[in-house]
Amino acid sequence: MQINRSLLNWGVFLIALGGVPLAVDQGWIETDIAGDLGQLWPLILVGIGLGLILRWTPLSWFGGALVAATFGVIFGAAAVSLRDNDLTNLQGIIPAIASGACSDGSAGSQTTSSDGIASDEEFTLELSIPCGELAVERVDTPTWSVDAAHEGEAPRVDETPGSDGATGITIREAGTEAIVFIGQQTRSDWAVEVPVDATLTMNMTFDAARGRVDSGAGPVARLSSTLNAAEVTFDLGEADVTQELDVGLTFNASDGRLVLPAGPSSTGATLNASSMEVCVPEEVPVLVELTETLASSDLADAGLERLADDRWATPGYAGDGPGALIELTSTVSSFSLERPEACS
């Protein structure tokens, strides 16, 4: 008998996906145990390895089936967390998927520093960090700097020259274009400082990385970022937004927190098997346009009223004036909105 591997893997995935909620409902396993099932991520690597070893044997299907089953169990556990509105469990599952792609412990023993003169009018920070930790801060100097702890080659830093200094920098891991999930990578931790006076644009990719991006009190034009198995905080709470702030985020199996300023902003976010918190000061009116598939949100608890099937807003606000517009597509994910007097 010949096995259709595609159909087999889909069948195994769906059985595992439905099996976890069923087991919880029947009392066969506790909800807390389901929340820890993300720790099974190493079986994905085991399945890939078995697939390579058994490639030319009658058992060649087994590795792919193991990978499919593991993904099914992990996403089944995520579905339980979403159904029960247990964001704590979901946030425990997501980082577990990422943790194995990036080795634990400290970064490499080598350190490298780069710096230069920056334009005081505009500055673009573009980077892609495949494994490690990133810290971005604004400084009251006309310079930019990058300090990296790493093993092997230092990250590559390229300037974009301008008439009165660099108008931006691009930072990438030397010789690495994309993350390799088969096996662990060595950490490379980066500390980046950019000038506070220049209008800042940020384009960032995080792959199995952690980070904190603090815009400081300087002007910010746009933040664009893609997170793949990552955990990042974007703090734009003190940003100078004389014009509308533009934010675009894509989360894939990631956790993130976005702090918005007390000014006009437009945020577009796509969440896939992820968890996201957004903090907007209470004084700022909010309109959320939400598209959900097997997802969870707490907009009613945050004081928003439902205008239509996919539109939520603060009382009396319909998005026809300065405020925070959030357009969100959420698939097997959770979204939380905070409305304190001031975000911290």
Tell me what you see in this structure.
The protein is of the alpha/beta class and 344 residues long. It contains five helices and 21 strands. It is flat, with a radius of gyration of 22 Å. The protein starts with a helix and ends in a 6-residue tail after the last strand.
The total domain count is 2
Mean of the pLDDT scores? 82
Helix content: 10-25%
The tally of helices reads 5
Order of strands in the sheet with most strands: 5-6-2-8-10-12-14-20-16-19-18
SS content category: alpha/beta
The main pleated sheet reads as: 11 strands, mixed
Distance between the termini: 61 Å
Tell me the series of helices and strands, N- to C-terminal: HHHHHEEEEEEEEEEEEEEEEEEEEE
How would you summarize this macromolecular structure in one to three sentences?
This protein has 344 residues and is an alpha/beta fold.
What are its keywords?
344 residues; alpha/beta; 2 domains; eleven-stranded mixed beta sheet; ten-stranded mixed beta sheet; 5 helices; 22% helix; flat
What is the strand and helix layout of this fold?
Elements: H1 5-25, H2 31-35, H3 42-53, H4 61-83, H5 87-99, E1 110-117, E2 122-129, E3 132-139, E4 143-150, E5 156-160, E6 168-172, E7 189-195, E8 199-207, E9 209-214, E10 220-228, E11 231-235, E12 245-252, E13 255-259, E14 265-272, E15 275-279, E16 286-293, E17 296-297, E18 305-308, E19 311-313, E20 324-331, E21 334-338
Parallel strand pairs: 2-6, 2-8, 3-7, 3-9, 8-10, 9-11, 10-12, 11-13, 12-14, 13-15, 14-20, 15-21, 16-20, 17-21
Antiparallel strand pairs: 1-4, 4-7, 5-6, 16-19, 18-19
Helix pairs in contact: 1-4, 3-4, 4-5
